[in-house]
Each structure stands twice: as structure tokens, then as C-alpha cells.
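Example 9 (inverse folding). The structure is encoded as follows.
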């Protein structure tokens, strides 16, 4: 990797850390750059996962104010994310990617529909609970735990637009402010990337230069993303999610 390639990977790390903190889909920035500098696909994927861990942690720290009062929720969802992430990482090492290549754009498209429809769907769910005399589960209940485990399995496998899927699921099943939900998403992203990274350290090939460049860049980007994302009102944040998710679908289909 020459100096210009190294700068490109570093810049991609900053971009990925920023967009991951605000929405997700930072992998769609770094992964193509790693391929362009000559890394094989699996090595690029593993190196990318390792490198994005500091960015996820940085973004979570940047959103620490919005995490107040969410300890129980984070612990419950983190357990599901951990199981899913390790399972997905194991699948990356053992299975071909053809099946995931076909289903990922569909998953992202469904997540975008949920993000757009989330306010109306959430109101309908609340009205039904009120009519039936039931109360909303503060942490989303079993349905959210199962959905987050599956989403984290995908995250451990590849992870493009994983944050979009997280926001869609939590926004639908948790009655809370979107910025607070986004803060939880950043914690879960750190857990998924971190646990998958530990797994990869022992069983997969990776490029340390790429890992370090993305790690430093994504850590910087995580702080930038927290500052930018916190100032976005819910409607604008939803619009950003849709734009990023749509771009992810286009890139995945074209590739």
C-alpha cells in the first residue's frame, strides 16, 4: 500500500466512522476502498470489521448523554447482539456469500420501509395496546430480542446498513426518542464489531496496515458523527437514514 492508497483508506475510515454513528452503512465506504487497494474480499471484510471497532466505541461515547436511563435496555439487547454477531462471524468463515448477497438488499429495503412508516405504525401499535388494555414493553420484548439477534448475525457476517436495520426494529418496537434509540444502536454496533473482531483474530487473515488506518480514521469519524447526528431533528434523521439505505441498496445491487 503506497502513501496515496493509505490516505484513501484513512479517509474512508473517517467517513465510515461518521456515517456509522449517525445512521450506519459505513462499511459501504471502507469495503470498496479496501478492494480497490488490492485486498481479497474476505481479507478486506475482516480487516474492515477489526478497523471499525474503535469508531463504534467512539460514536457510543459521543452519544453517552442519550444513553442515560437505558442501562437495562442496553444489557438485554447487547446479549442478543453478541450471540448474533459471533454466529454471523462463524458463517463468514464457513459459508459462501451467494445467499447473503441476494437477501441483503431486500432486508435493507424492508428496513427503510419500516423507518419511513415507523411513526404511523408506532401510533397504531399504541392504540391497539390501549384498546386491549396492554402496556408497551420498555425494551421491545421477545420480538425485538429475536429481531436484533438476526440483525446482529448479519452484522457479524458483513454489516452493510446494519445500523439502518437496528433503527428500524427499535423504532417500531420501542416507544422512545429516535436519538436515544440511535445511541443504543451505537453501543450494539460496537458490541457486534468487537465480538466479530475477536473471533476473526484467531481464525481469519487480515491486513494490519488497513486495520490501523481504518481504526484511527473511524475513531475520529465517530466523534464527528456524534456531533452532527445529535443536532438532527427526528424527521431529518429519518430522511438521512432513507438516503443512506437507498444508496446501500444501489451499491450492493450494482456490485
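The amino acid assigned to each position is listed next.
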Amino acid at each position: 500500500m503506497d502513501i496515496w492508497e493509505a490516505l484513501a483508506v484513512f479517509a474512508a475510515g473517517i467517513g465510515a466512522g461518521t456515517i456509522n454513528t449517525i445512521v450506519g452503512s459505513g462499511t459501504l465506504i471502507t469495503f470498496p476502498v479496501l478492494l480497490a487497494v488490492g485486498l481479497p474480499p474476505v481479507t478486506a471484510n475482516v480487516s474492515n470489521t477489526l478497523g471499525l471497532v474503535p469508531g463504534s466505541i467512539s460514536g457510543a461515547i459521543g452519544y453517552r448523554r442519550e444513553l442515560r436511563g437505558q442501562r437495562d435496555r442496553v444489557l438485554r439487547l447487547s446479549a442478543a447482539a453478541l450471540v448474533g454477531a459471533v454466529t454471523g462471524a462463524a458463517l463468514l468463515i464457513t459459508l459462501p456469500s451467494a445467499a447473503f448477497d441476494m437477501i441483503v438488499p431486500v432486508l435493507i429495503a424492508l428496513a427503510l420501509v419500516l423507518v419511513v412508516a415507523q411513526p404511523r405504525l408506532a401510533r397504531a401499535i399504541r392504540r391497539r395496546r390501549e384498546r386491549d388494555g396492554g402496556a408497551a414493553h420498555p425494551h421491545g420484548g421477545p420480538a425485538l430480542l429475536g429481531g436484533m439477534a438476526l440483525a446482529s448475525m448479519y452484522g457479524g457476517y458483513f454489516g452493510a446498513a446494519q445500523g439502518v436495520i437496528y433503527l428500524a426494529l427499535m423504532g417500531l418496537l420501542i416507544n422512545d426518542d429516535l436519538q436515544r434509540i440511535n445511541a443504543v444502536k451505537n453501543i450494539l454496533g460496537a458490541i457486534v464489531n468487537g465480538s466479530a473482531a475477536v473471533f476473526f483474530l484467531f481464525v481469519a487473515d487480515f491486513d494490519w496496515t488497513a486495520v490501523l488506518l481504518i481504526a484511527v480514521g473511524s475513531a475520529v469519524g465517530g466523534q464527528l458523527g456524534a456531533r452532527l447526528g445529535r443536532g438532527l431533528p427526528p424527521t431529518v434523521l429519518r430522511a438521512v437514514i432513507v438516503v443512506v439505505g437507498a444508496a446501500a441498496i444501489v451499491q450492493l445491487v450494482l456490485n
